[in-house]
Amino acid sequence: MAARCILVVDDEQLVRWSLSERLRGEHYEVIEASSAAEALERADGVDAVLLDFTLPDGDGLSVLKALHERDPDVPVIMITAHKDISLVVETMKAGAFDYAPKPFDLDDICLRVERAMES
């Protein structure tokens, strides 16, 4: 069985690295992107997306909407340092599968990804 593929989108290299290393340790294939444009270029065929809300060339909400136009079934887990509850509500209404605040726990992220894969 082929490994499930996760797209990790964050402009912070250390965040991408830590998420990618942990997910690879859980036997996922990982593709990384550091911008909204890269995320949209690399999103085809992924099984789930971890998406930061703040990106250098756009916001995660716009990327979420674009991803769901292409594939409404791909689960997207938003990750952000923003504590604004209205942002959480807006992303969930736009179709986010889940929301994880920064700083995050890698075990928690893995559980969220597992749940997303099961859905």
Account of the protein in words:
The mean pLDDT is 93. The chain contains five helices and seven strands, in the order βαβαβββαβαβα. The radius of gyration is 13 Å and the shape is globular. α1 links the parallel β1 (5-9) and β2. With 119 residues, the chain is of the alpha/beta class. The strands form two sheets. It has a five-stranded parallel β-sheet with strand order 2-1-3-6-7, with helices on both faces.
Strand order of the largest sheet: 2-1-3-6-7
Shape estimate: globular
Taken as a percent bin, the fraction of beta residues is 15-25%
The helix-strand sequence is EHEHEEEHEHEH
Mean pLDDT: 93
Q: Could you state the oligomeric state of the chains shown? A: single chain
Point out poorly predicted stretches: none
List the helices and strands and how they pair.
Layout: E1 5-9, H1 13-25, E2 29-33, H2 36-42, E3 48-52, E4 54-55, E5 58-59, H3 60-70, E6 76-80, H4 85-93, E7 98-101, H5 106-118
Parallel strand pairs: 1-2, 1-3, 3-6, 6-7
Antiparallel strand pairs: 4-5
Short summary:
The chain is of the alpha/beta class and 119 residues long. 45% of the residues lie in helices and 24% in strands.
